[in-house]
From TrEMBL, chains A, B:
Record-stated family: Belongs to the HAD-like hydrolase superfamily.
Protein source organism: Limulus polyphemus
Superkingdom of origin: Eukaryota
Name of the protein this chain belongs to: Glycerol-3-phosphate phosphatase-like isoform X1
Record-linked Pfam families: Hydrolase_6, Hydrolase_like
Keyword vocabulary terms for this entry: Hydrolase
InterPro entries attached to this UniProt entry: HAD-like_sf, HAD-SF_hydro_IIA, HAD_sf, PGP_euk
Length: 310, 310
């Protein structure tokens, strides 16, 4: 059962129970471009007391450097080598399989930036729209060229998704040797816009699957690749001395539970206590694996227990 | 078991066994803008001998009037009221539920044309691209407006599919009272372009489902609504006196079998005899329902049996 991380739990050796922290970003540290109140004081205090804080996010829209800059702007202490967005994991994965060809990216500049840093060639990202012609099929047949050097397709979030991009994605995937990578399979972004639903990468993955029949290698949470990336760079991390802080049961908490980390849910993002209760009461093993050890309304509450926030 | 429609079958009263013909279009009558050789002679001869020939297509990209014009250009005798594209079925469906609000269309001018003809208000179709801004979310939050009078979403084929269109589609569908219609769920278009795979409406449907959790009312084959539209306009049609000619087992033949029509597969489009054999040998009842009564290499072969083609 989930416990509130209250003063009793806290004073019963909570802080000494871990050496390192994986913290999700969206919904935990910030929402969009605004820091969540108290998050930076808490994260910075954990680092000041010697905890290794590692930033993990399924969001592929920025590179490590861009996230580092965002941390600086919003006041979170960080270093580039402690930031693990899925954009970076794409480059790590391709290096790990000694990939030598070109990458086609249905995604944005975050992925492009990481591929560039890793010296992996890729086709340009950005808008690739359908022209306004009466005969779309003729245009596709005549103008839409594939690059024979492409050997991998990466699907991440792409606000410029278009029909030509979809055609290219599924056409490259016709070749069963073409590597197919998804940064994550989150169907929606969290939003406080009451009237709008904001589709995520998972929507593109499902469209591509319907056409190509292909299932991607998923790098982001709850898949373990992201955690493997971290362990590769920090081989001494012992899961029994770690905790993950997240806002989403199906990604953060599930990854934590399945890798043996302790798990802390904060309620400043996607999941709420009703969802925790549904998972607790479910007979499904996968749902049971989404139940966190602890929860708190916000990271600020941890800061208050630590005495760094009034 | 499927039989080849050979001279023995033909002379055993084949032509007298039906009064009306439903014929699929793409892959049976034409491919893109070229008539399949012999198709027009055969179709026209069937009409000359008094058969009612009805054109049925899942393709929503043209209105009835536009298909009529295409028939004229390619030499097929037709009349507007015997042409049933899913674009037209959208309008019929909305009339059948006495729909009074506005329609949001993720689709093209074929649907718009039919809604216009039926006097049903709809939001404009065509490109609705994402601008090139660093802050896509802020743009979406600020600029993307919903129309509160929308009460139905139609998803058909849209070569201008874009992120703003996806956001609008799934956001309208947040309202459980918003009617959700799919013209069809075909994942791919048939193509003879060896290197390209051409995604169909089914890809968009799967993306929308992943985000919204909504399942559409499907109008196109193999769903029966298209057939119901025809029966509504031609109430005297007796399925035991009808045949459907198609190129796709999973749409044309399945619809024919499930409505009690005879079924004739032509091999000028999507399905081949290997697929027929796999369906015949399958234990799955749904696959068994895709096995046609007859097959022919092409409509021209029927014309030859009829003596209208050398």
């Amino acid at each position: 059962m989930t416990k509130k991380l209250d003063a009793t739990v806290f004073h019963n050796g909570f802080l000494n129970s871990f050496d390192f922290v994986l913290t999700d970003c969206d919904g935990v540290l910030w929402n969009r471009n605004e820091a969540i109140p108290g998050a930076k004081e808490t994260i910075n205090a954990l680092q000041d007391m010697g905890k290794t804080v590692i930033f993990v996010t399924n969001n592929s829209s920025k590179s490590r450097y861009e996230y580092h800059r965002k941390c600086e702007v919003l006041g979170f202490k960080s270093s580039v080598d402690r930031i693990f967005p899925t954009s970076y994991c794409v480059a790590v994965y391709l290096k790990s399989i000694d990939f030598k060809k070109k990458v086609y990216v249905l995604g944005s500049s975050g992925i492009a930036g990481e591929l560039h840093s890793a010296g992996i060639p890729f086709l340009p990202v950005g808008p690739d729209p359908m022209p306004e012609t009466e005969y779309w099929y003729n245009w596709v047949a005549k103008e839409l060229k594939l690059d024979s050097e492409v050997g991998a397709v990466v699907v991440g979030f792409d606000q410029h998704v278009s029909y030509p991009k979809l055609v290219k994605t599924v056409s490259y995937l016709k070749d069963p040797n073409c590597v197919y990578i998804a940064t994550n399979i989150d169907e929606q972004f969290q939003t406080d816009l009451k009237h709008l639903v904001i589709p995520g990468t998972g929507a593109f993955i499902r469209a591509v699957e319907a056409v190509s029949g292909r299932t991607p290698i998923v790098l982001g949470k709850p898949a373990k690749f992201l955690y493997d990336c971290i362990k590769y760079q920090y081989p001494d991390l012992d899961p029994s001395k770690g905790i993950i802080i997240g806002d989403r049961l199906s990604t953060d908490i599930l990854l934590g539970r399945s890798t043996g980390l302790r798990t802390l849910l904060v309620l400043t993002g996607v999941s709420d206590l009703n969802e925790v209760e549904r998972c607790s009461n479910s007979n499904c093993e996968n749902k049971q694996m989404m139940v966190p050890d602890y929860y708190l309304p916000s990271l600020a509450d941890l800061g208050r227990l630590m005495g760094v926030i009034q």
